[in-house]
């Protein structure tokens, strides 16, 4: 349990470090997430922190906790606040079997804390890469972080759920050759590892 909490906290910190390289003018840039600009991705990342933090407190069944809201006047500060809150909420979980209600996954069952935090860990390694690719900046997570997230990425179910609009992960792509596990993680989740969509920003609305 402590291991996955520590890994997750490091992934969240990684996402903060990458986002600190962004400027408000970057919010209109397209991301590797189809149909989303950086503002959309940032809003999603922020509310997912809030939803998972609520789940850790036993409040995950409240759908309002998961509802994406428009970015406010200080979107990067709001993201960092949400990131700190979820790390603190996970740190307060006492048992790895504590049930988490995650309605965006299913309303038919709960998930043990250790598995739910693993979902969050995977999301934020990948979303940190999404942001880096959007900004066209280097992305070099620690090797042990990538090696830890690889089996989680490979275990994500494939099938029709990956093809619907708004799916978190797209169908897997063939990984590029080489021994680096990061491209394998990205390809398994439908990301093209060489994707760098940076270009002239358009209005974030």
Compute the separation of the termini in Å: 41 Å
Query: What class do helices, strands and sheet pairing give?
Result: mainly alpha
Radius of gyration: 16 Å
Stretches where pLDDT is under 50 for at least 5 consecutive residues are 196-205
Tell me how many strands there are. Answer: 2
SS summary, helix count:
6
Describe it.
This protein is an all-alpha fold. It contains 6 helices and 2 strands, in the order αααββααα. It has helices at residues 2-19, 38-56, 75-91, 113-135, 143-155, 181-188, and strands at residues 99-100, 111-112. α2 (38-56) runs antiparallel to α4 (113-135) and α4 (113-135) crosses α5 (143-155). The chain is globular.
Main attributes of the structure:
mainly alpha; 205 residues; 6 helices; globular; two-stranded antiparallel sheet; 48% helix
Topology:
Layout: H1 2-19, H2 38-56, H3 75-91, E1 99-100, E2 111-112, H4 113-135, H5 143-155, H6 181-188
Antiparallel strand pairs: 1-2
Helix pairs in contact: 1-3, 1-4, 2-3, 2-4, 4-5, 5-6
Compact overview of the structure:
With 205 residues, this protein is an all-alpha fold. It has helices spanning 2-19, 38-56, 75-91, 113-135, 143-155, 181-188; strands spanning 99-100, 111-112.
